[in-house]
Amino acid sequence: MAGQRKRRNQQRGGPVRGAGAGRWEVVFETQDPAEWQSSVPLIRAELGLTDASVLRVETPGGRAEQPTTYRLSRFVPYAQAEEQT
Question: Cβ of 23: how many Cβ atoms within 10 Å?
């Protein structure tokens, strides 16, 4: 259904991801499934990423010409992103 993701995020009280709200920052990326399984829990604990609403797991690729890539990203609001740079 159109707009279902937006409604679900609003109902869960997740971060506002509208225009100008923030950006996704890649925290970890690999093509090795074993490394992915072992590293992600450690990275989440190290960075204190316990809130699932600010995390995004992507697995682009997965075809013969492009191997599967596993990517963990976190949502960084622009106010925080500008302070870090």
Answer: 12
Measured CA distances, 20 to 17, 26, 48, 76, 79 (Å): 8, 18, 24, 11, 10
- Residue 79 scores a pLDDT above 70: yes
pTM of the model: 0.65
The C-alpha angle with vertex 22 and arms to 8 and 14, in degrees rounded to 5, equals 25
Tens digits of residue pLDDT in 30-69? 999 999 999 999 998 998 888 888 889 988 876 777 888 9
CA–CA distance from 3 to each of 7, 8, 16, 52 (Å)?
A: 6, 9, 14, 20
DSSP reduced 3-state for 62: coil
